[in-house]
From TrEMBL:
<keyword id="KW-0479">Metal-binding</keyword>
<comment type="similarity">
    <text>Belongs to the dUTPase family.</text>
</comment>
<keyword id="KW-0546">Nucleotide metabolism</keyword>
<feature type="binding site">
    <location>
        <begin position="82"/>
        <end position="84"/>
    </location>
    <ligand>
        <name>substrate</name>
    </ligand>
</feature>
<protein>
    <recommendedName>
        <fullName>Deoxyuridine 5'-triphosphate nucleotidohydrolase</fullName>
        <ecNumber>3.6.1.23</ecNumber>
    </recommendedName>
</protein>
<dbReference type="GO" id="GO:0046081">
    <property type="term" value="P:dUTP catabolic process"/>
</dbReference>
<dbReference type="InterPro" id="IPR008181">
    <property type="entry name" value="dUTPase"/>
</dbReference>
<feature type="domain" description="dUTPase-like">
    <location>
        <begin position="33"/>
        <end position="162"/>
    </location>
</feature>
<comment type="function">
    <text>This enzyme is involved in nucleotide metabolism: it produces dUMP, the immediate precursor of thymidine nucleotides and it decreases the intracellular concentration of dUTP so that uracil cannot be incorporated into DNA.</text>
</comment>
<dbReference type="InterPro" id="IPR029054">
    <property type="entry name" value="dUTPase-like"/>
</dbReference>
<dbReference type="Pfam" id="PF00692">
    <property type="entry name" value="dUTPase"/>
</dbReference>
<keyword id="KW-0460">Magnesium</keyword>
<dbReference type="GO" id="GO:0004170">
    <property type="term" value="F:dUTP diphosphatase activity"/>
</dbReference>
<dbReference type="InterPro" id="IPR033704">
    <property type="entry name" value="dUTPase_trimeric"/>
</dbReference>
<keyword id="KW-0378">Hydrolase</keyword>
<feature type="binding site">
    <location>
        <position position="95"/>
    </location>
    <ligand>
        <name>substrate</name>
    </ligand>
</feature>
<comment type="pathway">
    <text>Pyrimidine metabolism; dUMP biosynthesis; dUMP from dCTP (dUTP route): step 2/2.</text>
</comment>
Length: 167
């Protein structure tokens, strides 16, 4: 349950407390620290590489994290790139965001890619390579219909509202 804090300095808004979910974790590589949140209110917990490696320009690699998790049914783990690595080194994830299903019990892996055209990037065991965000999800019950309900957007997409703020 999120708490609503009423501050005299702010209009009435819901200032959420951090929601927490217990995730059972198996340390396949016990000397590696657990994933952790860099700040108490971060959405993503940093995943670490279990090995040293270098990514040449354009190279991709499936990187082991040394942990496996049991995500409760109705939840998902989404593996996202780290913006600092992207900004400073051009490191991203080929499949961003990676989807970790509730039933998956294997080692978490991160599919990194070096998008820099010229610079190799080296990682040491224990470096933070990605972040995992846990979210509640619903499965769809697909219900075929002849016509969909109307909406304001309709079929407009792919830039239908304009591509820039000045156009
Ligand atoms: O970045 C990722 C993405 C996925 N996985 C693991 C957890 C996930 O549950 C499993 C399968 O992923 P996904 O469903 O994306 O793969 P797929 O290509 O559809 O293969 P599968 O047929 O095994 O589902 O691989 C990771 O460890 N890291």
């Amino acid at each position: 349950m999120r708490r609503v804090i009423h501050s005299p300095h702010l209009p009435t808004v819901g200032l959420g407390t951090v929601n927490r979910i217990q995730i059972l974790i198996q340390q396949l590589d016990p000397e590696l620290p657990l994933p952790r949140y860099a700040h108490h209110d971060d959405a993503g917990a940093d995943l670490l590489t279990a090995e040293d490696f270098t990514l040449e320009p354009g190279q991709r690699r499936m990187v082991p994290t040394g942990v496996a998790v049991a995500i409760p049914e109705g939840w998902v783990g989404l593996v996202h790139p780290r913006s600092g690595l992207a900004h400073k080194h051009g490191i991203s994830m080929v499949n961003a965001p990676g989807t970790v299903d509730a039933g998956y019990r294997g080692e978490l892996k991160v599919l990194l890619i070096n998008t820099d055209p010229t610079q190799p990037v080296s990682f040491r065991r224990g470096d933070r390579i990605a972040q995992i965000v846990f979210q509640e999800v619903a499965q769809a019950v697909f219900t075929p219909v002849d016509t969909l309900p109307e909406s304001v957007r309709g079929a407009g997409g792919f830039g239908s509202s304009g591509l820039t703020t000045t156009a």
